[in-house]
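# nightly structure sweep
# worker-07 picked up a monomer target from the shared queue
# config: single-sequence mode, recycle default, output format = structure tokens
# input follows
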Amino acid sequence: MEWANYGFGEPRFIFYPPISWIFGAALGSVFPWNHVPMVFILLVQTFAGLSAFALARRVVSERAALFCVACYAANPYALLNVYMRSDFAELLADAFFPLLFLFALQICELVESPPEPKKRFARRAVAYFSVVFAAIWLSNAPAGVIASYSSFAVFGFAALTRRSWQPLMRGMAGLALGFGLAGFYLLPAAYEQRWVNIAQALSPGLLPSENFLYTIINDPEHTLFNWIASTISVLLIILTGFAALGARRTEQDRKSALDNRVWLALLLLAGLATLLMLRFTSPLWQLLPKLRFVQFPWRWMSLLCVPFAIFLGSVMGRKRWGWAWAVVTFALIGGTGVVLVQHGWWDTQDIPGLRAAIANGVGFDGTDEYDPAGDDHTNIPAKSPEAMVMDTDSIPGPNSRPKIDVERWTPEDKEASVSSRERFLLGLRLLNYPAWRVEVNGTAVTPSNSDDYNQMIVPVPAGESHIRVRFVRTWDRTLGSVLSLAAALFVAWLGIRRGTADLKPVS
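# output follows
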């Protein structure tokens, strides 16, 4: 991010969940960059299949569970993300969804517990749920919002059907612990939004009202993509609906079908995802906290894909007509993949162009929503020195021009030595942001900014001066880290704690 805004930088890493870009950077340290997307997708979708199997094998037969793996790992929404959106962060977050609902069902005691005391099993389920919930938030924020509302719906459903507050209270504890585990990211991301133009995340084209199913706006490319996503949504809804009917447990089919409680919970998730993609739910998008930051209602397909895989796997695993379900489903998934590949847009020069821009010291354009407040990054020059004299008119002559020596220039630490006969204003290739601490000769100073854009400008006295600019850890980042550490210790205690009943000797 040092090279965003043509080298002036942006604080994206404060606001963008860290797991996906750290994982991508790690892969880029091992594999050629052109291969990283393929390796990322392969690893993430393999994990998605394992995640789906962990849930499926507890609610359907082993044969059906294998079909669930195939349906989830190659679900149409994942194909849309791979071939058209390249949203690697959301792809990673979606891989955790089956595990999230496995532990949610265990918290609600809708899935049978292993041979251990129920109270201990429930505590462990809360701990595991919180870890997975935090992993989703640390992978993709819109997916985190979806996970929050859908998990709460499951806990509320279990509390109503069981006529007990216990599932809801345990679930709320799991949600709170998950937020705590992700606190080192969530607290700074929430607090420091006032320091950036975060409202640009909901600029025209990115509003929920412009992205409900089959919405048409005055942008042909946007409308085309929306129709592709909408068609995939309808395909998922129809397949999930018919499969749900086939997967319902009856008195005559108890062995091979889903338990009715699990079936109802999954049907609830499918219904929630379907409704929130439809325009008449627009008031909810305005009223429910942070829901509008999901941006695209069709993103709720990420939730719909969980019941999609379980219901279809269940009916495919049956001896009677299972083969027909498999043929139809995989034909539709394969056809979807072919269409997406044909309509995908590819630019093989993207990665080489990005690498060249960094290697040449030019950098690349920044992101609207992460632009520091008060800045218009469209005015940032494409080529600028690391340090320069801003008030050149106040310099008497060429012999009086300050001498500037940049000694250190790293992403979070900049140092320069200056020799000048007159006081002057030193402009740095850096956007002003409150987390930067500026020191001149060891004394903290408050920088100003230019008129056109929020460039950091440092007042420098006459004589020899040493300027240092550091990106410091603000109080919100420190408090977030403390919160995450406290939550991690409590989760570990929940996972290993043994109740008094577990310690009784066996007679």
